[in-house]
Every structure is written in structure tokens, then in C-alpha cells.
Amino acid sequence: MDAGNKLLEGLDPEQRAAVVAPRGPVCVLAGAGTGKTRTITRRIAHLVHRGHVAPGQVLAVTFTARAAGEMRTRLRALGAHGVQARTFHAAALRQLRYFWPRVVDDEPWQLVEHKLRLVGQAAHRVGASTEAESLRDLASEIEWSKASLVTPEDYPAVAARAHRDTPGPPEQVAQVYATYEQLKMRSRVLDFDDLLLHTAAALEEHPDVAGEFRDRYRCFVVDEYQDVTPLQQRVLDAWLGNRDDLTVVGDANQTIYSFAGATPRWLLDFSRRFPEATTVRLERDYRSTPQVVSLANRVIGAARGRPAGARLRLVGQRPPGPEPEFAEYDDEPAEAAAVALRIRKLLDEGVPASEIAVLFRVNAQSEVYEQALAEQDIPYQVRGGERFFARPEVRQAMQALRVAAGAPGEGALDARVRAVLEPLGLTERPPAGGATRERWESLRALVELAEELATALPEADLARFAQELDMRAEAQHPPTVEGVTLASLHAAKGLEWDAVFLVGLVEGTLPIQHADGDDEAVEEERRLLYVGVTRAREFLSLTWALSRSPGGRRHRRRSRFLYGLVPDNHPAALPARGRGRDGAASRASLRDEARRRCRNCGGPLVGTMAVKLGRCADCPSDVDEELLARLRAWRTERARQLKVPAYVVFTDATLTAIAEQRPADEAGLVAIPGIGAAKLDRYGADVIALVNGTFPPDRE
Ligand code: ATP
Ligand code: MG
């Protein structure tokens, strides 16, 4: 079979229709997991392969750096090298750097580095609040305005019409906005939205610039088109001019950035704007099991509003899998501990850590999960792509690779990369845990990138690899590290994992507090849950906790979106009482029944804290205060040496448990929940010596 036909392999008839449609407008309107991203990457590769367009003439855009990176990887795998796949911002940044001298002058400009500081100065000048919180709100509001093409003059009227929850009197917000723009102009810096505005303006106002650009780029593709803002649409229109070689794909039910100005309007109106467009609807869901698909259909089935009008019923194509699990917990740490244990079980069953994700509504929820995973010695990465290339070991490694690239050398790319990284801490087998492990994971991820590049481009050498890393760093596309992903629902869009944990599903968090009372905002929150559910291929867990902290008032209610979803005969559907009623997830945490009785009164232990301490919360504490103080001091020192937060070494609860139970040997130490083999290896000798008063321990 020739390569062209191979590109049509594994496509269903509708996907194929979109792939083979002639150059011109194409719109794929379809639900999650139906193969939209697959379809457009195949379409690009197909057009290139047939010679309808040169790879360099295609510009594919999407909304996150991660998604753009994903697209580049898929395109390369399909043999379409040289296609530009970028975020709107990255594309605009490149174009502007190129055109700027011609449309403005030779004086260079910089991207604004301390945006909040500028907003703060502006707020100060007009007498608005300059508290950190207010400044963040003001900055978001300015971003919304710019994304929505609203000028400071128009802001008060438009904000009123759009029922914006303005961070201060609208007139004052408008003044801050106007002053911010002036300050920015005076210091010759641009913010992210300016990149887009100036790009559009350069093309709109300079026919020579537009001519050159349109000659270079002839074919446009947009993924996740439901999240385009008016500003981005204006850039897209400027790119297109009066041409119509545009392929868009999207799912109106996954619109989750309206708060930032995104609107599914252009997606839903595409065939009105281009009546001759090829429009394709997909409803076969290839990503998820029928169990997950059925839940997704029920979540979005209750939606209202315009996006819901475009709703498609997904039909699951994969073999059946487990039913989604629901579980309720007393408090957040208990929820996180149970999730970590469930993850441990999945890992033991052979699910790779990189195929597991914990998704939450707001980033602050991440911390308790970081802690719970650290306690289980489970590697994880907090999503926020830029962090990978910002890590010191990665910067060090890139520097070393650049130096090595300048020296003569031979051999396979990945072997050479390994050799360069070994002195930096890359070993054959992973080190036990903590900071050295994280460092190792980063280095290993770089080796994987080298392997990936060597497969796609066998002639690639060290210099080419160093260049690839620079490009990725610029586009902030991190490689996948072998760890559980912790990410917000927003950051998870377009991605997929074998196992997904949706956590913290309580009123006030999902829907988020400030959405309450605004029907449209609540609908967006529902779509977020839909996005979350549809990230799972097989295993899906939905959990919530009745109070924030152990022993707190259990006044939280589970999310309204779960009503009718939790099976009626499910224990979590009943009023909450005590532990152990939450089905599989908490059964998994019943590691050792003996550990679950109070060593004081012999009664059952309720709550994570009690389990950890091995006694009821109100049974008298027999903590050795002096020992506890020594343990704390030791922990501070270790954490400082390892450059990790103290809880990564031991949590407060674990320290207290040690100070109460005073384990004299290893057996006593591992009997304390939270202390596994890895912690025993690393800290066991120290802790036992501390307990026995013989610290520091003898070391050979
Ligand atoms: P989202 O709305 O979440 O962005 P999507 O519509 O872009 O989803 P893809 O990511 O393209 O969906 O595809 C989902 C999964 O289904 C991927 O793993 C993809 O490889 C697989 N897939 C897509 N189409 C087919 C097909 N025809 N046969 C088999 N697998 C497919
Ligand atoms: Mg997609």
C-alpha cells in the first residue's frame, strides 16, 4: 500500500470524508474522543502527501503549547515534516518579530515581564485597590477586554451588557485599563494580547506585509475552534484575507474558556459563513469505554444553552471496561490518601504512571494530592508546561548538550545524549525518590526525546537535538515524564489517559463558587466536568470530601452535577456517615485491618489522622514532646538538604505518630501508615536513632 493510502487507514467514513475533502473550507463538528485531532492531522498529511500544498505553507493553530506540541509530534509521525503547528500566540510572536521593523521601526520591543506590576502602577494612579487579589482580577478583566476587542472607552457599556462581574466600578476598571495601556506603550513593551492585535493590524494595514504573508501561508487549520476569542478570530481573518482554505474542528460542548472571551459562535456559524464548506459530524467515540461514554452523555445531556443545541450523542466504540467509581470521604486529606492508594493499586496492576491523571478545578487543589502521592512514593508532575524547561537540571542539561554538540563525536543520538547526561545524574536504574528521583525523571525524559527524534529523523545529530530542545522550550512543550499527571480541568483539554481521577467534586468548587447564580457560568462548569469525564480511556473515579480538613465540620455537599449519576444503590448515594461506605476506592485503603483500631481503647479508627496516629482523635495523646521537637528539627534539615518541602520527607501526622509510638526498630517503623519501603530505606536509620537517642546513627 502506498503512503497516501496508509494515511486513510484506521479512519471511519466520516473522518475520511473530512480528510480527503478538496482544499477549501472544512468543518468538523464533533464530540470528545471522536477523532477530531486525528482527522485534522491526517488531513494535513494527506494534502501534503498529494502535493496539494507544501508543508511550509500550512499553519495549524491550537490553544495550548502542549496541544501544539502534540500536533507536531503526530504530524511528524505521519511524515509531514515542516508543517507549522503553534499556538495563536506563538505564531503571532514569530510573525511580529519578522514584520515589526517594516511596520513600526527598527527599535526593538520586549514582552512585558512584570505585568501585575504595571497593572499595579496603573491602579495606583487612578486610585483603585492595589491588593494582590484585586490586581489579578484587574489583569484578567483587561485580558478579557482585549480578547473581546473591547477598548477602554467601550468597556463600561459592554461590561454592563455582558453582565460582567467587574472588579470594581466599571468606570474605574476602564481607567486602570487605559492607564495600563499608556504605561506599556511608554516603556515599549507588549503583552500577549498585543502580539495578536499588532499581528492583525500589520496584515490589515500593510498590503505588502499581507501579500508576503499570504504568499507564504496558504492553508490554515484550527483545532479546538470552540475556544476562539474575537481577537484570535480577527488574526485568523487577517491571515486568510479573502481566501477560504480553512479547516476547523471543535466541540461546542467543550467550550471552557468563555470567562476569558472564547466563544463557539464561529464554530457553530461556520457553514453559514462558508456555505460551500464540507461539514462533517462524528459521533463514534474511540477514546473511552462505553461505561465512560455513557456517563459523559449523561453529564452533557443535562446541559442548556446554545452550545448544548449542537449536542451529539457519543457512541462508544471500545470494548466494555469497569464502571466509573464514585466515592465520598470525610475530608480532603482522606480523599487524597484514598486516591493515592488507588493509584498505587493501578500501578501495581501495570498501568504506567504517565497514563494516570488527577484532575481538579483549581490549581490550589493540587497540593494535597502532591503530598498524598509523595507519601506513597509515587512520581508525579504538576502540569504547567513551562516548568519542565525552567527546571535547573533541564537548563543544565541543555547547556551541556550544546557544549557537546560543538565537539566532534560519533554514535547514535540517544547514546550520545545519555553520555552527556550521565555526569548530571542519569543512571541506568532510577534512584529511590525525592529530589534526586525528580532530577533523574527530567534527564530520562530528555533521553526519550532524543529517541523520539532519532526515530523520526534518523540523521539527526546532537546539534539538531539541541535545536529541537530550544524550539520546544520556546514553545513550552514539555516531554512526558514518567509520572502521574496533576492538572486542572482546563489544562486537560484535548488530552487522554487510561485512568482519570476527578477529585474535589463539591459545590463551591465545581461549580466554582463565583459561577453560582449565573446560569451561563454554571453551564460552563458543567462542560468542565464533561471535559474531565471524557479524558478517561478506561478507568474513571469521581470523588468528593465533606470537609476540608480532618475533624472539620462536614458541611460540604457533593456537586449538583452528580445528581442522577451516582447509582441509587451506591453507598455514596446514601447520607454520609462514618468511613468505609465508599465502595472500592476506600476498600483499597483498608490495607491492614489491625491498623484500624485505636491502641488506647481498641475502638475503630475514624479519619486519616486517627488511622495515622493509631488512636482516636479524642483518646489521650501520649506524644513525646521532646522527641517530636527533635524529629521536627531533623526533618527541617533533611528537607533543606534535599531541597524539597518538609512534608515530602514526612508529614506532621507521620511525625506525631512516630513521637507517640516511638518505634525502636524497622518493624515498628513500617507499621506506621505513610512509611513504606522507600522511606524506610532513606530515613529509617535516622528516625530509629532519633527515637533511641543515638542520633546521628553509625554509618559505615
Ligand atoms: P477531544 O474532543 O477530546 O479533543 P478528539 O475528537 O480530538 O477529542 P482524538 O484525540 O483525535 O479525539 O482521538 C481520540 C482517540 O481515539 C485517540 O486515541 C485516537 O487515536 C483514537 N481514534 C480516533 N479515530 C479513530 C479511529 N477511526 N479508529 C481508532 N481509533 C481512533
Ligand atoms: Mg482533540
From TrEMBL:
GO molecular function annotation: helicase activity
Catalytic activity line of the entry: ATP + H2O = ADP + phosphate + H(+); Couples ATP hydrolysis with the unwinding of duplex DNA by translocating in the 3'-5' direction
Q: Where is the HRDC domain?
A: 621-700
Keywords assigned by UniProt?
ATP-binding, Helicase, Hydrolase, Isomerase, Nucleotide-binding
E.C. number:
5.6.2.4
Q: Where is the UvrD-like helicase ATP-binding domain?
A: 9-289
Presence of keyword ATP-binding: yes
Gene3D superfamilies named in the record: 1.10.10.160, HRDC domain, P-loop containing nucleotide triphosphate hydrolases, PCRA, domain 4
Which intervals hold domain UvrD-like helicase C-terminal? 290-538
Say yes or no: keyword ATP-binding present: yes
Q: What class of enzyme is it?
A: isomerase
Q: Which InterPro entries match?
A: DExx_box_DNA_helicase_dom_sf (IPR013986), DNA_helicase_UvrD-like_C (IPR014017), DNA_helicase_UvrD/REP (IPR000212), HRDC-like_sf (IPR010997), HRDC_dom (IPR002121), HRDC_dom_sf (IPR044876), P-loop_NTPase (IPR027417), UvrD-like_ATP-bd (IPR014016)
List ligand-binding residues for ATP: A30, G31, A32, G33, T34, G35, K36, T37
UniProt-listed CDD domains: DEXQc_UvrD, SF1_C_UvrD
Protein family (similarity comment): Belongs to the helicase family. UvrD subfamily.
Q: What is this protein called?
A: DNA 3'-5' helicase
In its UniProt entry, the species of origin is given as: Streptoalloteichus tenebrarius (strain ATCC 17920 / DSM 40477 / JCM 4838 / CBS 697.72 / NBRC 16177 / NCIMB 11028 / NRRL B-12390 / A12253. 1 / ISP 5477)
